[in-house]
Structure formats: structure tokens, C-alpha cells
Amino acid sequence: MAISRAEVKRIAALARIALTEQEEAAYEKELSSVLEFVAELAKVDTADVAAMTGGTDLINVMRADTAREADTHDSASLIDQMPKRRNGLLEVPSVFE
């Protein structure tokens, strides 16, 4: 299944990506080859294949979630390094202006 240059431009516009003429040509070829590969995979008979619920039998092992005392010495030294502080709080630049 081939993808047209117009479809590449539409996909780029939807993704808000600016493409040069060379990039449009490259993506036209690359996306067409990806779609051809997917079409080839769709031809494979998977009727007798059992569904997979995961890739492995491994389980996630995590440490116990336990409370511990905060190391106030390290916190204090980090706070002392902040360039701006006001009323015991750290002052940081505004994200939204």
C-alpha cells in the first residue's frame, strides 16, 4: 500500500511538523514501506496461535514500601544552596507568565 505525498503532508500538518520537500519524499517512501510490511503481516494465518497476555513469565519484584526518617542534614544543605528564598520557602522562576 503506497502513501501519497498529499497524505504525508496531511499527517505532518496533523502532527504540526514542518517538512522540507526532501523530508516529504523520504517519508513518502518510508511510510509506504511500513504500510507494505504491515499488509504482509496481515496475510499471516494466526487462527491456531494462542493469544499472548505478555512477553514473558517474569513478575515485577519491588522492595517493601516502608517509612523512614528524612535525612534533615542533606535537606538543609540543599536548601542553603538555593539562590532565592522567601519566608522559609524556595523561590523558583514562574513556569507560566
Any chance you could write out the topology, listing elements then pairs?
Layout: H1 5-14, H2 21-42, H3 72-80, E1 85-86, E2 89-90
Helix pairs in contact: 1-2
Structure description:
This protein has 97 residues and is mostly helical. The protein has a domain at 5-42: Histone, subunit A, CATH 1.10.20. The protein is 42% helix and 4% strand. The protein has three helices and two strands; from the N terminus they run αααββ. It has helices at residues 5-14, 21-42, 72-80; strands at 85-86, 89-90. The protein has a two-stranded antiparallel ribbon. Helix 1 packs across helix 2. The longest helix has 22 residues, at 21-42. The protein is flat. The relative contact order is 0.08. The model has no long low-confidence stretch (mean pLDDT 86).
Q: Can you tell me the residue ranges where pLDDT is under 50 for at least 5 consecutive residues? A: none
What portion of residues is helical? 40-55%
DSSP, total strands = 2
The sequence of SSEs as H and E is HHHEE
Mean pLDDT: 86
The outline comes out as: flat
Please give the alpha-carbon distance between the first and last residues: 47 Å
CATH architecture of one domain: Orthogonal Bundle
- Hey, roughly how much beta strand do the residues contain? under 5%
C-alpha-based Rg, rounded = 27 Å
**CATH class wording of one domain:** Mainly Alpha
Give the structural class. Answer: mainly alpha
- Total of DSSP H or I helical runs spanning 4+ residues: 3
CATH fold name of one domain, please? Histone, subunit A
Spatial ordering of strands, largest sheet: 1-2
Major sheet:
2 strands, antiparallel
